[in-house]
Specification:
The protein is of the alpha/beta class. 32% of the residues lie in helices and 17% in strands. The chain has 17 helices and 20 strands. Helix 1 packs parallel to helix 15. Bound molecules: flavin-adenine dinucleotide and 3-acetylpyridine adenine dinucleotide.
């Protein structure tokens, strides 16, 4: 057994992104527990360690895309832009790791492959790919919602003689596209960021699109220092507002139906949100946009008009206009010159619904009508979201039941943080919590602090196990589905429902009830001596 001196921990945490880093700090430095983090990557940062593709940056405003638990940290860090680039976010997270001396308790280059609950010892035994075995009272998944990349099975990929990359595993020394013929598969939020940047460098860029996207301009830029300072002075209030908001931002819906507003009023409102950029068009629009197809349609039509205005060739514009799903029911990408890029002479749009990809050949990609010769293929094909990273670990709870099996028909979870039959296991931003339907650092902090509260409660009362009750789990899982089904979200084939992964059960995974109400529910559960959980002494 490697490192036997420290083989038994109070807690083992998997993942060293925003979630795992704060979980470590919280358990080790606030509760004084022994904790170890395992991380597959060779550094901290999670999403921001792996996703180094050209154009990668956040699309939450930087003043809220950060930790809020420490006043000094908040005040000392200066973001250079509204949406900083990946290297800057990674620098920030490294700064946090230095500040709280986190690295000494993180094992990098170490993938956790197995976690088993021992019912006699009431402890988890955790194994890594390299064969290290440790035990812990608590097993905490901080594995990320978007960390298991999805490389679809394309016939002939192994024969391809050029270079190929998935955006979620981008080489650390970058990729030079100069004078190259590049192909990119996918047009999700990642591709929307990467395409304009790659197109500037590449000799030719061919975009293979399956589903077009409604994009809204990001409107990135420097933040006025006066605004930044005013926000710093107001952080307590900002934190309260985002913690009690719907989506973890300082945004709220217009309390009116889109259909009640006159066409002129709507046009003014839409244009104001369009000019402001960011998520307001998606998350601060008329309140019935996610509930009424008619209200949704007027928002969609405005965005279709913008695509037609921007893209010079009407035939290309039509291909770029979404027609198969309602606006906003897939994740809203923010763009910087995305549609403009299709006006460039070196950019070709291939609609793979018209001319499907048949195979990857040694020289490129063959669609039904021709072969596209390519020196580089970029897969911007997304992730096996939410359940993917947890299911990749062989997690076994009571009676040897595997999590993967339990979730065969979709995730079952109590509050998205605990699973019946898996005592002392917590999932940070697990399925059934607001997670990806929120500005994630806000949801991550709430989960970390709530889990810390559970563990402190157990310590104070000398408890051995804490476990979600099956009935509480079933009720919560049904509630998550009910809230989703009341909206238009489940009508789209999105990754929120697992529709991007062949064979994945079609279940809307994140909780749509809102960050504020969810926090309130978690607080009520805690106040009622952790209602819905059972404990053993
Ligand atoms: P991650 O950052 O994904 O970290 C999880 C870590 O766990 C990974 O490093 C992974 O290697 C590790 N891990 C997983 N399984 C194992 C295992 N078995 N063994 C060892 N280690 C393991 N959210 C927003 O709110 N706003 C944004 O603007 C935003 N931008 C994004 C941009 C991109 C390109 C992507 C992909 C996502 C973005 N997100 C955004 C979502 C983002 O994932 C979260 O904001 C946040 O970074 C998640 O942190 P995390 O710690 O939960 O997970
Ligand atoms: O992944 P995606 P992503 N053949 O799944 C296509 C966060 N994020 O990496 O829509 C052909 O959205 C697929 O087509 P379709 C954010 O939460 C945030 O772009 O399934 N095409 C789609 O076009 C985001 O939502 C930021 O029909 C195939 C694309 O590949 C999430 O991460 C930036 C295919 C995948 O899009 C995931 O975004 C980036 C196939 N076989 C990411 N398989 C910011 O905050 C898949 N596709 C800035």
């Amino acid at each position: 057994m490697a490192n036997s001196q420290h083989a038994n921990f109070d807690a083992v945490i998997v993942g060293a992104g925003f979630a795992g880093m704060y979980m470590l700090h919280s358990l080790r430095d606030k509760l004084g527990l022994s904790a170890r983090v395992y991380e597959t990557g060779n550094g901290i940062g999670g999403t921001w360690y792996w996703n180094r593709y050209p154009g990668a940056r956040c699309d939450s405003d930087s003043y809220v895309y950060c930790y809020m638990f420490d006043q000094r940290l908040l005040r000392e860090w200066e973001w250079s832009e509204r949406y900083p680039e990946q290297p800057e976010i990674l620098r920030y997270l490294n700064h946090v790791a230095d500040r709280f001396d986190l690295r000494k308790d993180i094992r990098f280059n170490t993938r956790v492959t197995e976690a088993r609950f021992d019912e006699n010892a009431n402890r988890w035994t955790i194994r890594t790919e390299a064969g290290e075995v440790v035990t812990a009272k608590y097993f905490i998944g901080a594995v990320g919602c978007l960390s298991a990349s999805n490389l679809p099975k394309f016939k002939g990929l192994e024969t391809y003689q050029g270079k190929h990359y998935h955006t979620g595993h981008w080489p650390h020394d970058g990729v030079d596209f100069t004078a190259r013929r590049v192909g990119i598969i996918g047009t999700g939020a990642t591709a929307v960021q990467a395409i304009p940047v790659i197109a500037q460098q590449a000799k030719r860029l061919t975009v293979f699109q399956r589903t077009p996207n409604f994009c809204v301009p990001a409107r990135n830029g420097k933040v006025d220092p006066e605004v930044a300072n005013a926000r710093k002075a107001d952080y307590d209030a900002i934190r309260e507002r985002i913690r009690n908001s719907s989506f973890g931002f300082e945004l709220s819906f217009i309390e009116k139906s889109a259909l009640e507003a006159s066409p002129e009023e709507r046009e003014r409102t839409f244009n104001a949100m369009w000019d402001q950029g960011g998520f307001s068009f998606w998350l601060a629009n008329y309140q019935d946009m996610f509930f009424s197809k008619e209200a949704n349609e007027v928002c969609a039509e405005f965005l279709r008009g913008k695509i037609r205005e921007t893209v010079k060739d009407p035939a290309i514009a039509e291909k770029l206009i979404p027609k198969t799903y309602l606006y906003g029911t897939k994740r809203q990408p923010l763009d910087s010159n995305y549609f403009e890029t299709f006006n460039k002479p070196n950019v070709l749009l291939v609609d793979v619904n018209e001319t499907p990809i048949e195979e990857i050949t040694p020289r490129g990609i063959r669609t039904s009508d021709r072969e596209h010769e390519l020196d580089i293929i970029v897969f911007a094909t997304g992730f096996d979201a939410m359940t993917g990273p947890l299911k990749k670990i062989d997690i076994r709870g009571r009676g040897g039941q595997t999590l993967s099996r339990k979730w065969d028909d979709g995730p079952h979870s109590y509050l998205g943080v605990a699973v019946a039959g898996f005592p002392n296991m917590f999932t940070i931003t697990g399925p059934g919590s607001p997670s990806v339907m929120s500005n994630m650092p806000v949801s991550i902090e709430q989960h970390v602090e709530w889990i810390t509260g559970c563990i402190e409660h157990m310590r104070q009362h000398g408890l051995a196990t804490m476990e979600a009750r099956t009935d509480a789990e079933a009720q919560w899982t049904a509630h998550v589905a009910e809230v989703a089904n009341a909206s238009l979200f489940p009508t789209a084939d999105s990754w929120y429902l697992g529709a991007n992964i062949p064979g994945k059960p079609r279940v809307f995974m994140p909780y749509l009830g809102g960050v504020g109400p969810y926090r309130q529910k978690c607080d009520e559960v805690a106040a009622k001596e952790y209602e819905g959980f059972t404990f053993t002494a």
